[in-house]
Design a protein that fits this description.
The protein is of the alpha+beta class. It is built from three helices and twelve strands. It folds into two domains: 54 residues, no CATH class; 139 residues, no CATH class. The radius of gyration is 31 Å and the shape is globular.
Length: 223
């Protein structure tokens, strides 16, 4: 075997013996053209198409679409003798909360109490719970006319009892929680006292809450 044939044989059988230029070109090619799993290509293309379509139409792909959906709930005053009665409420989750439950862990926005023979709302901080939840009384404004939460933060009560009266309306700023896209959010909702029986420690109220993160809008967007 001639010396030239030996060199050609060695370069084929051992890549390390190839000329440096050839090895470099091969590695560059591997970096420039990574292998892509073909199964994910249609999904990737569909996602790009949907995003481009939404952008072209002027839509915000992160906007939450929702509709008004008021509902009624019943709470029982904290000073009643029965245990495991729901006396607090989570506005965004539309969920009654039993304060004695160990799973509660501050995930509520107001509690119902009876003081001086009258029913009152208590924000979490009034009970020593660290929370961003607060309530703003809205005298003279109907439930239907409540379209935006107040921007004036001094109108929100965080530590004091809030007297209740049938027909009165309130804006509730919720406790902080994770939004749909992972960000920390507070939400705003509205409620109206439908009926209350102070002697029995029972409150019925109507409520609705916007799912939009950190938005003071209380009704869906029309555009």
């Amino acid at each position: 075997m001639t010396p030239k044939a030996i060199r050609e044989y060695d370069s084929r059988s051992c890549p390390a013996l190839r000329p440096s230029g050839q090895a470099q070109r091969g590695s560059d090619s591997a970096r420039e053209f990574p292998i892509v799993n073909r199964r994910f290509v249609p999904i990737l293309l569909l996602g790009i198409a949907l995003l481009l379509t939404a952008t072209a139409c002027g839509d915000d792909p992160f906007r939450i679409q929702w509709s008004e959906n008021p509902a009624e709930a019943t709470l029982y005053a904290m000073d009643r003798q029965e245990l495991n009665r729901p006396s607090a409420f989570d506005m965004l989750q539309r969920r009654r909360v039993v304060l004695e439950s160990p799973q509660t862990q501050g995930r509520w926005d107001f509690a119902l109490d009876r003081q001086g023979g009258a029913l009152v709302f208590l924000p979490p901080r009034a009970l020593g719970v660290t929370s961003s939840a607060a309530i703003a009384p809205m005298p003279g404004v109907s439930f239907e006319d409540l379209r935006e939460a107040p921007s004036d933060t001094t109108r929100y009560i965080t530590r004091e009892p809030i007297p209740l009266q049938a027909g009165n309306t309130y804006v509730v700023r919720t406790h902080e929680q994770r939004g749909r896209f992972g960000q920390i959010c507070t939400h705003y909702g509205k409620l109206e006292v439908v009926s209350l029986r102070a002697e029995d420690g029972v409150l019925i109220f109507r409520h609705d809450t916007s799912p939009e993160c950190n938005s003071r809008r209380l009704i869906p967007r029309n555009d």
